[in-house]
Amino acid sequence: MSDYEQTFFERAADRKGGNLILMDALLKTPIKMRKRSSQIFLNSYFDTSIEKLPDKVILHIFSYLSHLEICRMAMVCRRWRTIAYDTKLWKNVSLRPEVSGLHVGSLEQLLQMISVRFSASLRYIELPIELITHTVLHELASKCPNLTHMLLDFSTAMQLHDFSEMQAFPAKLRYMCICLSEVIFMEGFMRKIYNFINGLEVLHLIGTYEKGEEEEEEIYEVINVHKLKSATPNLRVINLYGINFIDDSHIDAFSSNCIQLECLAVNYCSKVTGSTLKPLLARSKQLKCLLMNGTDLKSEYVMQAEWDKCSVQELDISGTDLSTECLVDLLTRIPTLRFLSAGQINGFNDSVLKAWAESGSPKSLVALDIDSSDNISDEALGRFITRYGAQLQACVLSGMTHITDQLWMTILPILVNVKIIVMGTTERLIGNIHVDQLMDTIGSSCPALERLELRWDPENLRFSDKSQKAIDMLRVKCLKLRCLVLSDGRYYETVKANFERADRTTVVRTTTSCRVSAYHVLSNYNDLIFN
């Protein structure tokens, strides 16, 4: 859209009143649709009224707005209210105020919304604890036959509603996420839905790990995993995140019943030691992804597992206390490892990297994350990247003070296929990072780059008055770049202003609100996302 058209729209919005958000949404639409919509709007403007816009054009423009903004549009006039409440705009709905900004005042209002606004179009819904009642679930089961994804947030619950009269529940769910409470036992609710969830393929149980506890309290098993596994035999993806009561017996329970299991994540379940890894790998022949970040893995249990006979291709063992011997045994025995996250492990050193490289096992590797691995030297890393860097799609070498821009300048020309890069540390360095040369090299060497994070302290970044040229190189050469994360400071402001002038306003972000992860290259990444 030309500057003239944009100025015209802004003036038109001022004159017409109430159209400003609509114009803002129009500016967000794809170029092909934008040209068509702008021409229609120009024609309609000269006919003196925005009312000349066809309903389908306004509906398409509304589709680029959040539900909160759509609700505001509904207050403009009756026609816009009718369009705003079109079921096509309400396929994926979050009713959690802290997420979407939508607050439903009463159950009666929600029941009316389900019947009139959601109906057969609804595919995904998020419900907070105050809206999870048997009447709401009955209405969803009866009025929303195409509902396949559901999130139930019990995390703030101090008391459950009465589910004794619940006789129906959405029966076509393929994805369900349950945010658990620390103190509310879920069995009264769960036994009412067991008969309706046997078609589930993706299950998320989210604990309270991120809340952080100042002092240890008594741990309650608030959901019966052994009964749940019997009701969900078709699970492909299981994510048990930060649940303080999950242990190896629960992993064994799922593996004994879920023969189609492809991905198991038990990140931050501190009671998992790996004692049931051997039967898990023996039973789950299709298991390709195993994520165990922040668990209490024991080296002897890991070494007992038959890694050379398993199908595991993606492994996360970050933040564990595995020994050097165990790491060498593990990495040299997995034949087709494509993803490895092994950061924050004291036992991961040069000898592990050398033995792994010499075994030839990294021949399929596309993602390497060894964040905060202080016992690996830059020489060993340089040799490994020189040998396998050309095949990497994700490279995370952050949190290490000895890995500076000098090593990156050496290995960046090798990372020709990389999509994700994370570099730098938040610790203050003695030397400085010459970021202009770094940006220029990234732009000329990594055309496929999609996500980049520089974690260095702003005080350590040195750039010149001509840094715009290096930033231009990055922006013009890396056209797929969708996320560039920097520490807040002068350089962040410079880069942000450069991208905003090129109308790429959402690319540059700060480390306080965004982090880049190698998880984006996981084969089950979309299934592992939870809100």
UniProtKB/TrEMBL annotation:
Phylogenetic classification of the source organism: Eukaryota, Metazoa, Ecdysozoa, Arthropoda, Hexapoda
Gene3D superfamilies referenced in this protein's UniProt entry, alphabetically: Ribonuclease Inhibitor
Any Pfam family hit: F-box-like
Organism: Aedes albopictus (Asian tiger mosquito)
InterPro entries named among the record's database cross-references: F-box-like_dom_sf, F-box_dom, LRR_dom_sf
Protein origin, superkingdom: Eukaryota
Protein name (Swiss-Prot/TrEMBL): F-box domain-containing protein
Start and end residues of each F-box domain: 47-93
SMART domains: FBOX
